[in-house]
């Protein structure tokens, strides 16, 4: 330690032993010191916090207001009020605020006087924003674009109101952690550290023994050391050590009684307990700095109880002199760790799957509530497309209509929301918020499309009224089921949010078989009528009555299927008109009779698939162009849930996957029963080998790759070589004892009877020769996430063509993004700027053709507008990229070759060309 630092640290230690009169000086010194311990003394960083779930056992409103306390006594509004009062009493005290969904509600209703106090607390460092997202998002079931969006929403609020940029991630409660999170927070966001509590119990014990709980996490193998972040894993969880929880009504509360005139004086006992706990933690931690997380779920509702006791502990512990204690934050703690110049273990992979006991793998939530997971994913893609349409429209009297969805989308990424681990009434509340927000955005999109497709560029004179069909998944779409008249056609406008032209099939429910489809240029489009099956008819009838109260509905007879081609970030119009039967150019599907060999072959072109006529399951895929010829066995199976047994009472539930009975025999392989940086003792060979899947999954042998893309977050595994296992749905009879206190038994009730919830979805399957599947997975994966946004209206076809823009693109004609680049965000902000994010889709060395530098010509992307100003920022757009400062960390046994990752170069501000290397995300604020 440098002499100057030693003198400063000593001064802090002396100041901390003084009474309250000198507490402010101690706080000021500690805030600026890089190592606040005197003479190498063990320093305990007390970090006051409250973990406030944005919905879980209660709804987000109930948690904020403190209602429905029969379920849980929690009131976040009281916590924030109480904390501000307590901090204002003593400048030495500190507190960290995490979930902006709660803080922004509270802030909006505060008086100017209270706001001024909070500003002072934030500016002085007493109140620090940590993580700073709208919620503490999940890391398994959440899409990375939603991670970015909800974090950006919170960060922009903090920047706007306080001009602060959070420095630390605080993911203390998600049930396992993703390397994607570490990469996004480290390389792209600019955090110095991330702190969390939940890792596998076997991994934790090994890390305690090796003093390896704190690591340098390199979350991207593509970027290596340039993506690293200091990751602090708590020794137990995010609670204080035993005996130091000071919630006023807690049965275990043991206050520090330092008034010798009263009974129960216990200063010596409490100081000894403090020192013992600190030394025990120091024995499993590198350096002479340890962190105590002084809080728990919905703590500090009477904050003075906590702070009064911590004030006394700090005073008496520092007088004792064996260890040093101070109020701290994750940022101050990280600075102290960095100043020690210690070398740290390095980690690359996920902290998945997570288990906290022998038969307790938290892998069930990867699939829990699959319909809600799909609902969130569907709105994520819709939100992305709607923001693009809002940008295309430009500033108008409509305002920023997409803000109606930002709160609901942010809340739904919470680690007890999209994860499927909230109570049923809370999940219903999440869904309701999404539905209400989406309904408002839908109206804005319909109005915007009316304006955009109007030839004269005005909105008011147009009589065109668009509608959308969010219930197409159950074949319900009033616009398309309405009879197509002899005068008007059904006009379908398809918007493509991708940066390249695409051709996808769409299907809409219709009641007329005499229909023809025409594209915007007058070309007749081949179409097909597929009879709506009885299962779909039954589901439609049941759910329309249960949810919409529709009882007289007549289901459509057919699905009308045709291919739609749309330019990049643009739209195209298609016209469905009545025609005489003999003039139809489409096809009507017919039921194929079972053949003698029990096989039906489908596919008129080079791709042919064989299905079992008895079961309808896929048997073989053959592609004459790629040379693929692969037999496939498809099965639908189910695991019976373990309800607890005589050996272990652990049951399957919303969090936990624990199958009952005999499990498949494990085959020795590096896919399986393996953790990269610790030796696993496997007790659950099925549940312990499940992993979260957001985009897709593939399995390869020496010849082929079989890829499957998914339409929502799921859990998946490969229990045997050559096999993929994807969990579709979950229903359990028991609660798993992890807090939600309800079995996962989703039902829909109608007329006094209840049925289990039906989950329907689409999986996309492709077989490629070995090493050739990445391009399809990456590009088709974008199409799955960002489907067409469809809008419908009934208009005279000739009139429509005369007065409307049937086809257009934001980009220059014949320009599109490279196949390896996606537009992640295009969003108009309330300050008049535009937020743009571009992402390279491929990892380094993943594909010889596409894992290369890609170039995007912004002038051609925004062909109809002139970019006047461009600023590159970090991922959440709360600071310039050039202002980001990264800490350099020493690691043990660093074996990186030293080759710098392939990254895009500086912006060419004349040509406005942006380069992106593999996996790189670049974020910009634009002015037009």
TrEMBL record:
Entry GO MF terms: alpha-mannosidase activity; metal ion binding
Swiss-Prot/TrEMBL keywords: Disulfide bond, Glycoprotein, Glycosidase, Hydrolase, Metal-binding, Signal, Zinc
Q: Which residues form the Glycoside hydrolase family 38 central domain?
A: 360-434
Which reaction is catalysed here?
Hydrolysis of terminal, non-reducing alpha-D-mannose residues in alpha-D-mannosides
First-tier enzyme category under EC: hydrolase
Check the UniProt entry and state the signal peptide residues, or none.
Answer: 1-23
Q: Which Gene3D superfamilies match?
A: 2.60.40.1360, Glycoside hydrolase 38, N terminal domain (3.20.110.10), Glycoside hydrolase family 38, central domain (1.20.1270.50), Golgi alpha-mannosidase II (2.60.40.1180), Golgi alpha-mannosidase II, domain 4 (2.70.98.30)
UniProt keyword Signal present: yes
Cofactor binding: number and manner:
Binds 1 zinc ion per subunit.
Known EC number(s)? Answer: 3.2.1.-
Which metal ions or organic cofactors does this protein require, according to UniProt?
Answer: Zn(2+)
Which family does the entry's similarity section mention? Belongs to the glycosyl hydrolase 38 family.
Tell me what this protein is called: Alpha-mannosidase
Supply the source organism for this entry: Urochloa decumbens
């Amino acid at each position: 330690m440098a002499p100057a630092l030693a003198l400063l640290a000593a001064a802090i230690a002396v100041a901390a032993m003084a009474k309250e009169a000198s507490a402010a000086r101690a706080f000021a010194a500690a805030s600026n010191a890089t190592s606040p311990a005197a003479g190498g003394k063990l320093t305990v960083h007390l970090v006051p916090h409250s973990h406030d779930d944005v919905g879980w056992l209660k709804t987000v409103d109930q948690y904020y207001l403190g209602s429905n306390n029969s379920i849980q006594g929690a009131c976040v509004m009281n916590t924030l009020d109480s904390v501000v009062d307590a901090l204002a009493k003593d400048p030495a005290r500190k507190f960290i605020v995490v979930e902006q969904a709660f803080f922004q509600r509270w802030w909006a209703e505060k008086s100017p006087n209270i706001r001024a106090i909070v500003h002072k607390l934030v500016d002085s460092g007493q109140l620090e924003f940590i993580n700073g997202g709208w919620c503490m998002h999940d890391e398994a079931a959440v899409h990375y674009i939603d991670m970015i969006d909800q974090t950006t929403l919170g960060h922009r609020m903090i920047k706007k109101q306080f001009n602060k940029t959070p420095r630390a991630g605080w993911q203390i409660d998600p049930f396992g952690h993703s390397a994607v999170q570490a990469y996004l927070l480290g390389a792209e966001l600019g955090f110095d550290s991330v702190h969390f509590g939940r890792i596998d119990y076997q991994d934790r014990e090994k890390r305690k023994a090796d003093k390896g709980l704190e690591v340098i996490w390199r979350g991207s193998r593509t970027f290596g050391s340039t993506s690293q972040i200091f990751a602090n894993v708590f020794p137990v969880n995010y609670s204080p050590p035993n005996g130091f929880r000071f919630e006023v009504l807690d049965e275990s509360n043991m206050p520090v009684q330092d008034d010798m005139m009263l009974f129960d004086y216990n200063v010596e006992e409490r100081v000894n307990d403090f020192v013992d706990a600190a030394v025990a933690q120091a024995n499993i931690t590198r350096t002479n700095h340890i962190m105590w997380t002084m809080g728990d779920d919905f703590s500090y509702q009477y904050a003075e109880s906590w702070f009064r006791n911590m004030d006394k502990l700090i005073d008496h512990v520092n007088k004792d002199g064996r260890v040093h204690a101070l109020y701290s934050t994750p940022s101050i703690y990280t600075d102290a760790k960095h100043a020690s110049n210690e070398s740290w273990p390095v980690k690359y992979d996920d902290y998945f799957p997570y288990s906290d006991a022998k038969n307790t793998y938290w892998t069930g939530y990867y699939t829990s509530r699959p319909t809600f997971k799909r609902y969130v994913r569907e709105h994520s893609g819709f939100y992305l497309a709607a923001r693009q349409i809002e940008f295309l429209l430009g500033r108008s009297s409509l305002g920023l209509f997409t803000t109606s969805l930002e709160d609901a989308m942010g809340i739904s990424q919470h680690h007890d929301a999209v994860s499927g681990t909230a109570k049923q009434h809370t999940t219903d509340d999440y869904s309701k918020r999404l539905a209400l927000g989406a309904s408002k955005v839908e109206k804005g999109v319909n109005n915007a499309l009316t304006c955009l497709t109007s030839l004269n560029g005005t909105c008011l004179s147009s009589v065109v009224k668009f509608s959308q069909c969010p219930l197409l998944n159950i074949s319900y779409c009033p616009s398309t089921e309405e009879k197509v008249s002899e005068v008007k056609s059904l006009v379908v406008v398809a918007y493509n949010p991708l940066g390249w032209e695409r051709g996808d099939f769409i299907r809409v429910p219709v009641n007329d078989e005499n229909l023809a489809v025409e594209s915007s240029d007058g070309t007749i489009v081949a179409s097909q009528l597929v009879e709506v099956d009885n299962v779909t008819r039954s589901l439609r009838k049941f759910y329309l009555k249960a949810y919409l109260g529709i009882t007289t509905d007549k289901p459509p007879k057919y699905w009308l299927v045709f291919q739609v081609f749309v330019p990049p970030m643009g739209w195209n119009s298609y016209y469905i008109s009545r025609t005489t039967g003999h003039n139809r150019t489409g096809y009507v599907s017919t039921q194929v009779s079972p053949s003698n060999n029990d096989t039906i072959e489908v596919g008129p072109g080079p791709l042919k698939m064989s299905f079992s006529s008895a079961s309808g399951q896929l048997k073989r895929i053959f592609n004459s162009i790629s040379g693929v010829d692969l037999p496939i066995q498809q099965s639908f199976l189910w695991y019976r849930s373990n309800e607890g047994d005589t050996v272990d009472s652990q049951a399957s539930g919303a969090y936990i996957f624990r199958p009952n009975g005999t499990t498949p025999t494990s085959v020795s392989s590096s896919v399986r029963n393996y953790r990269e940086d610790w030796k696993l003792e496997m007790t659950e060979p099925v549940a312990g080998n499940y992993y979260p899947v957001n985009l897709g999954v593939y399995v390869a042998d020496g010849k082929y790759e079989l890829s499957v893309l998914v339409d929502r977050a799921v859990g998946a595994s490969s229990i045997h070589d050559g096999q993929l296992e994807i969990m579709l749905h979950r229903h359990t009879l028991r609660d798993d004892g992890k807090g939600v206190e309800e079995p996962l038994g989703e039902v829909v009730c109608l007329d006094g009877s209840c049925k289990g919830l039906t989950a329907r979805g689409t999986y996309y399957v492709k077989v490629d020769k070995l090493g050739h599947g990445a391009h399809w997975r990456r590009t088709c994966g974008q199409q799955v996430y960002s489907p067409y946004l469809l809008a419908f209206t009934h208009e005279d076809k000739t009139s429509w063509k005369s007065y409307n823009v049937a086809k257009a693109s934001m980009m220059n004609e014949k320009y599109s993004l490279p196949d390896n680049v996606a537009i992640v965000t295009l969003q108009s902000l309330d300050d008049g700027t535009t937020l743009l994010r571009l992402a390279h889709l491929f990892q380094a060395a993943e594909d010889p053709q596409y894992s290369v530098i890609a170039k995007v010509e912004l002038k051609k992307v925004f062909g109809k507008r002139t970019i006047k100003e461009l600023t590159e920022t970090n991922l959440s757009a709360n600071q310039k990229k050039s202002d980001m400062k990264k800490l350099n960390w020493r690691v043990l046994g660093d074996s990186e070759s030293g080759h710098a990752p392939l990254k895009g170069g500086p912006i060419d501000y004349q040509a406005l060309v942006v380069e992106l290397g593999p996996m790189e995300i670049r974020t910009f604020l634009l002015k037009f």
